[in-house]
Design brief:
Chain A: Residues 31-151 are extracellular. The complex is a heterodimer. By secondary structure, chain A is of the alpha+beta class. In chain A, 36% of the residues lie in helices and 28% in strands. Chain A is elongated, with a radius of gyration of 22 Å. Classes of the chains: A alpha+beta, B alpha+beta.
Chain lengths: 151, 645
Amino acid sequence: MSWKPKHQRMALLGVALVALVGAVLLAMWGLRSQASYFYVPAQVESDPPAVGQNIRLGGMVLEGSLGQADDGVSILFTVHDGEAQVPVRYRGILPDLFVEGSGVVAEGRFTPEGTFVADTLLAKHDENYVPRELEEMTAAQAKAAVAETTK
Amino acid sequence: MIAELGLLALWLAAGLSGFQLFAAILAGRGAAVLGEAIRPVAVMQGLLAAFAFAMLVWLFARTDLSVALVAQHSHSAKPFVYKLSGAWANHEGSMLLWVMVMAFSGALVALFERRLSVATMRATLGAQAIVTLGFYAFLLISSNPFERLATPAVEGNGLNPLLQDPGLAFHPPTLYFGYVGLSVAFSFAVGALVTGEVGRDFARTMRSWVLAAWVFLTLGIAAGSWWAYYELGWGGWWFWDPVENASLMPWLAATALFHSTSVLASRDALRVWTVMLAVVAFSMAMVGTFLVRSGVLTSVHAFAVDPERGTFILVLLGIFIGGALALFALRAGKIAEGSRFSWKSREASLVVNNVLLTALLGIVLLGTLYPLLTESMGTRVSVGPPYFNPVGAIFFFPLVLAMMVGPLLRWRDTKWTPVVQRLAPAFAAMAFVALLVVIDGRAGLLSGTGLVLAAGLALASLLPLARRKPWRAPLTLWGMVVAHFGLAVTLAGASAESAFIEERLVSLTPGESTRISGWDVTLRGTIPVAGPNWTAIEGELAVSRDGAIATILSPQRRSFWSPPQTTTEAALWTRWNGQLYAVLGEPAESGKRKVRLWWKPFVTLIWYGALLVALGGLLALSGRARSALRRSIAVGRATQRREVA
């Protein structure tokens, strides 16, 4: 099969374009269905995510809420943002700097009962690091959170 | 004095880099004298930058606390090795390392590259000067590593304990060498665009640099993944984290680039595309640096982030890439048409490789930047494995198939039937593994397919050696075989790990045990231990089978005091068929201790495979170097003979 150079160039360009457009379309589809959205407890209350949908939940760990579940390994605690509260159940080893009263981002999903089941906890990872999602919140809402927990 | 000397050297190097740029421009307009000066200036600049970096390392070695950077990131009680690595484990130092390597590579290009025409060489070194100049400006204006404190600090702040690790001491420099190698490829591409000389010599010159960059990137990514695996204590080896993606994207682009340069070098086809890829590869290195340094995305690896500096890098990125693309738009039409080729040929399979790799690159890039896009519209999202794994696999799996077939095809034209016959053993292996996977039933769709393809590729990658005497095969062929085989090994490790992993999360009282993958793990107790700059609680886990103790695992929770921080030290026990991975958790109720265990079948294959891939690159590189040397000796002899005659 012999092609004229111009035709081959066009065909190559066509193949590359189709593949790239395909990749972009696939990516957009994948992103729409698979990206996990970030919620704070107030949003969960006003506009609850679907049960089983992967989301990230960010907020402060409520003072005095940390406890152990009956299975002996899961951890229970409450995340709040000064406006609303969400009960969280986490099965795993707590991050090194996870303490009551500090910020946390939990990755997981809601059960039909309204408990958030977390697979991963992102806590501060050195003394200067704050998960990016919490930066704005710690400025505006942490004050309210602290005020509420200390009153 | 040392700091001032370093700063002076840095300013001089920046000045020389500016001079190099103007000399290149003026020489292009006929000032031949200036053209002569470009090479020596580039060499001098490289030496000065190396000197400046040596001064910084010296400051860290002495823990000179009158220097702001040392005071912020070092500590007199730190192990000596980490004092040294502290020099580049922070923003300013790592940027100095970057610019030093870049200037030094410029010097190497100026000293040793003789294949390009004088004009292209000048334009190349001019382009290299623009890039280095941008980084000098970045260092001197916004991140001077040699800044003094008004009053010396009494004690340093220390280095983040997560970074006090042998793997991580060498991981960032390795990646930087890779990024810088791509910057050299970029300069070659710009130089070739300026003169329009995009041909085989261009490809041959650039190929070694891209290959070297690619070897470093491979090693850097493998080291980073290994570090995340054992240091973070999460048991994962790849999180599709923005910072990980930032190193993967240049790697994908570089992989595509050296495959397309081999088409350009052998068949003089894909000219415009290769130039474009070189620009893309360096853009990805810059995007990577931007993502890592700016902290615009949440990352588990983000250290030393600073949004302001991110902006500076973004501006540099805009100038370099915008400039290169504008030049590309202006000049691409003037690059003479390359050769045509048949659809049934080695070069066509390499086109398939390039298209698929570019598509993969696009998918990773979109997934990485998507959170930034939605954030600008007020929604915060994160993108993780549920997106990257399946969407990436759609392009990665066909790529593996192409890797099986491509190396068996000839340049120019091939008949299909013999190729299919040669691949028969690989197909048989795939069918056999597929049968096993289905019978076993534990593997998911992705990990199962991964295992099948790994088996096929492992066999198929060896076929190019099958019909010749292996010891007579050229090193470059060996390089390809080893690298492709290495990828099969990595794929096998990754698929086996995700298909057959076992996990236990338990609360144990001392003396109590749990069972994982046939091993009984007993918690004997916890003891306090201390290191040079940390204290820790250490768990003592006895691993036994049928009552006979096989090993003791000692995972720790460490507390460092400067800076104050706790880290989880996982304990690993490597067997031939996998790894036992133990993490000590927090205390649970009534004197119990939480322990998390994983049995990870064949997980080490992931990094052994990566090492093979890098070794393949190294073999190919030395093969090229050897033939270049032979050629230059032959040319030398020929001229001698002519002179004698």
